[in-house]
User: Fold this.
Amino acid sequence: MELIDNLYLGFATALSFQNLMYCLLGVTIGMLIGVLPGVGNLAAISMLLPLTFYVEPTTALVLLAGIYYGAQYGGSTASILLNLPGHPAAAVVCLDGYPMTREGRAGVALFMTTIASFVGSAFAIVLLAAFAPPLASIALSFGAAEYFAIMVLGLVGASLLAQGSPIKGVASVIIGLVLGLVGTDVTTGMQRFAFGVTYVYDGINIVALAMGLFGITEVIANVGRVDNSNATKRITLRSMLPTRDDVKRSLAPMLRGSAVGSGVGILPGAGVAIASFMAYAIEKRVARDPSRFGKGAIEGITAPESANNAAAQSAFIPTLTLGIPGDAVMALMLGALMIHGIAPGPTVISETPEIFWGLVASFLIGNLILLVLNIPFISVWVSILRIPYTILFPSVILFIVIGVYSINNAHVDVLLVAAFGAMGYWLYLLKFEPAPLLLGFILGPLLEENFRRSLLISRGELGIFIERPISATFLALTVLLVAWTIISSLRRRKRQFASVEEAG
Amino acid sequence: MKLLIGAFAGALLAASSALTPAVAQEFTKPLRIVVAAPPGGTSDILARLIAPELSEAVGQPVVVENKAGAGSNIGADYVAKAEPDAHTLLLMDVSTLATAPWLYSDLSYDPTNDLAPVTMISFSPYIFAVNPQLEIDNVEALVALGEEDPRALRIGNSGIGSATHLAGVMLGDHLGLDWTTIPYRGGSESSRAVVSGEATVIINGSTATLPFVKSGQLTGIALTGDSRLDDLPDMPTFGELGLAADQMGSWQGLLTTGGSSEELVERLGEEVRRIVESPEMQARVAEQGARTATGTSQEFSTWLADSTETYGEIIQQFGITIQ
Assistant:
């Protein structure tokens, strides 16, 4: 039993006093960063990077990784309580988490997201321990055509996120796509809609967009509202406990979310946010009564929360087994490894098994710590709602400004938050939804880049999308999804028609 | 008498401290090293290794701040427009300073006059590598494959106008290859692509590429710079093969705001060179596949002027534009 031996080695490494302390430190910092709106884990990790020059490489990675996945736990806290996502991936949790708070079920929502986070992480850690190398080679078989096909499916799925008018939903996606065009066109190097502003040459900062659209908009919308009534109730343990119905409804969504999240997570560059959006869209599709979504459906928070934690954990698969980082934070962790003279890549597992298995074990320990840390904190977080709005909202804005500035140290991002806040409020008044907009913004550039890259590879032949089996499968799924949506809406109309005729 | 001596000594002290600023300029407030790249990269790690020692040397705190984006031009622009007092430093891959004037018609700063070179820090060569599925390990075989099946050769780079793009263009022209250029967002994306086989050829910094070559995920063909790598003694240099772009690579340099006092710039240069040339630092830099490369501010200025001219010729010859 090689796996058992490896896990034994891993736990022996991870349970050393020093590693345990660094793990605790990492996940605690991560959780706090996650809770603070806009503060990115990249900024925190880069500040702690010098510390890692002086400790063992395993210890260094245990700390940095702890911040990374710890931040996924806290991210949904402010989404649920204040409609303010801690990071862009947590924006999805706003859709149903915030309505739960308004119903006085904030405690339940926080409790269930903590459980869902743990389930998602645990699911992905098992995959990481058991199948990391084969999964990494699957991830490598995804080229530009496959990425394009997945993004198409994602974009069509995005139409499901819209809660009100479908036309307005589509319009929101398109506004997002247009905002995604801003900056350098990767394929030609041309500047689009940058108007000579150097700061947006690399595109609009997604954190500024998400914080403006969700956070600032929410603050403006609440100005003048005086009642804090839903929040003044005392938080008892009972009010935190989910009902049997909550648990029953969440089991399958958590597992589906974990699977989707793990799948998206192993694709370098796809990102945690796409995992959350996809998990939400799937739940809404498979739900018997999709109209419950957006009004406090528990599946609407547990599925995406499992998905983003699973994605954050499975993103370590390509990073550790191939040396290919999925995002800037992963790249930073590889940098930390290289400082210690360890070349990232397939040899990490065989040549320095204590690092790989030590990390795997520390992930499990870290997630257990997060579970234990988070549950007692729920009542603390919920008590934030008792802070009068006159103090709470200015502080929220202050945190957003600090957080957004910390991403790039760029004052332009702060101005952008203000602009997107104004735009978000205008969209709010017109009843356009921010979530499809954000998804359009995330998917648009990936869709375009991978489409044009595929055509570069095929030298202009569109056949590349259907010749490659994985890409063809995803495109076929998209066609099926569209067909199903059309047919089911026609049927519904026919039935309504029939019932009207019967009545008449 | 005692009192008199005391008074005299006091007066002397007062006089000497009043004279000091005129004799030797000092660093009067915290220094900042602006890194024009995201955390975790070569520039960032260098800055964070240098900062604590520089702080000790100049007696002021030294803070590292990342201002990434627009191909390092955001960070460069920031330092170019800072107070010209040598307290704001810029650490970056300085190739950008040589290409930016040619690529951006409305560049918001003048790399020659708004920035003052302090010292060069390190050099890491580019590695020219291919996906192992091509089953080639030398330039002749690559050229033969390119003539037989041009679609097999797809070169990834870190973005249009990046130094890795220019190196690819020069090399392709030199070898007479009609390869497909595929731009990516940065070096880690292009590395992913060439490891997966989406692209098949890459020219990229050794820090990023060396691990892939060592593990066999990529086959190394050649490297830029003057000397072979200790890790891969069999891989020839561009110079040995007579290839174009043989001096290209990632040059990490330190600059400050133009118009700063020459004395302070000189002092910074000396301190940083001393830090960089220490054995521990050289070892750290070597672990990243780079080597320390120091040079006075004068040498750095000359290098920058020469490079600007060379890149200008290439960019105009191949009509590379990004606006």
